[in-house]
Amino acid sequence: MKVGILGGTGPQGRGLARRLAAAGHDVLIGSRDVERADRIAAEYDDAGYSGWVAGGSNSEAAGAELVIITVPYHGHAELLASLTTELAGKIVVDCVNPLGFDEKGPFQLLVAAGSAAQEAQQLLPESTVIAAFHHVSAVLLDDPTVDDFPDDVLVLGDDRDAVAVVCELATAIPGARGIYAGRLRNAGQVEALTANLIAINRRYKTHAGIAVTGEL
Amino acid sequence: MKVGILGGTGPQGRGLARRLAAAGHDVLIGSRDVERADRIAAEYDDAGYSGWVAGGSNSEAAGAELVIITVPYHGHAELLASLTTELAGKIVVDCVNPLGFDEKGPFQLLVAAGSAAQEAQQLLPESTVIAAFHHVSAVLLDDPTVDDFPDDVLVLGDDRDAVAVVCELATAIPGARGIYAGRLRNAGQVEALTANLIAINRRYKTHAGIAVTGEL
Question: Which of A159, A211, B144, B200 is the most buried (most CB within 10 A)?
Fold first, then answer.
């Protein structure tokens, strides 16, 4: 599948590009800075994966079959509002965590729509928005020596078929499982849980993620 | 340690009473219905654990050294406001998940204070409120045949010593780990994540909990 990653030159975007190319997908890394996207894409394209990786503008990346959003939250609404046409009819996977930081560490930013994913769905009424990939450590994703992820990927959405597509995409990360974890209206707490994982990382000097226990 | 459980006759309270008594703690199950609390406590008191279990009123349970709150959210504020004197100077562990349910399943209830735990801290300014035990399955807690929990317990709070006490309490559940997961202001998403676990339980017919990945 041809996958576009908006804001794909950041740590999360690069990690996903690596894993998706390794799983045989073709990846378009989109960025405001096309030259930077090209340069980063070349690294992954030369890594010998079965999928190719190319760079381009966010608008070009939005032309892919499935599009992942990894921009910082402060640029989220403006970018999506500018790409409604390109994203119409597609699965849009929102990984954005609306977090603020102060001297006491990270905290949840309030989003009028309830969550970044619900905001995306409001801005993109003709797309099918799925929330996923919030907790997988960008550091581990982008580390080619890590080939057995202990993390699960919580996948949220209101369209069962789109959820299944994204669960499959997540399960392509070696060791990880894509797990349905509720409707889009329950995405806010999943996004904000990243603040707790950052607190765990700081206290225990680790790269924390989450796994779902119980038989699945 | 002598532990009181407010609203302790519900599934979560009963499960915690069993595990804490098994770990050698003395447990006071509090309830509005003292006769019911007595009857339920007798079951655990007769189970041969090294700690004793007794029933009583919520006010009596609030007299213990450490107090756990497992009431439904709709009774949370009223109960705590009535026990400020009994709870002053103590560690109060809030396990309450403010959730609503409709035909589409569970969802997060908005709490003006940010979370049930922050609401508790506002109502109990002389207590040290810690948020914990939101995700451990009540069914598994109360099943004496389960002796190796795969779940972790996220423990949130602003007082490092109190966090350590509650982490130790959680780690007394065989197999579980109590893990510091941030300040109290990050409790809302941990409480609300219970909605996602309920969605997972419904889709996969399981008793889902969470485990933290990464070296701790």
Answer: B200
Asked if A195's CB is within 8 angstroms of B186's CB, the reply is yes
Longest dimension (CA), chain A: 46
Give the nearest chain B residue to A149 (CA atoms): B213
Residues 6+ apart with CB under 8 A from A216: A177, A179, B200, B204, B206, B208
Q: What is the pLDDT of residues B155-184, one digit of tens each?
A: 999 999 999 999 999 998 889 999 999 999
* Secondary structure E strands in A23-94: 26-31, 53-57, 66-69, 91-94
Rounded Cα distance, B168 and B179, in Å? 9
A85's CB contacts (< 8 A; 6+ apart) are: none
The alpha carbons of chain A give a radius of gyration, in whole angstroms, of: 16
Contacts of A206 in chain B (CB under 8 A): 214-216
- Beta carbon pairs, A and B, within 8 Å: 145
The string of DSSP letters for B143-157 reads: -TT------EEEEB-
- Among the ranges given (A2-6, A114-118, A172-176), the one the predictor scored with the smallest mean pLDDT: A172-176
Taking the model in full, what pTM does it have? 0.96
In tens, the pLDDT along A6-63 reads 999 999 999 999 999 999 999 999 999 999 999 999 999 999 999 999 999 999 999 9
For residue B113, count other CB atoms closer than 10 A to its CB.
Answer: 17
Minimum-distance CB partner of A212 among B106, B210, B216? B210
3-state DSSP call for residue B5? strand
The H or E element that residue B161 is part of is: helix B160-171
* Residue A113 backbone dihedrals phi, psi, to 5 degrees: -75, -10
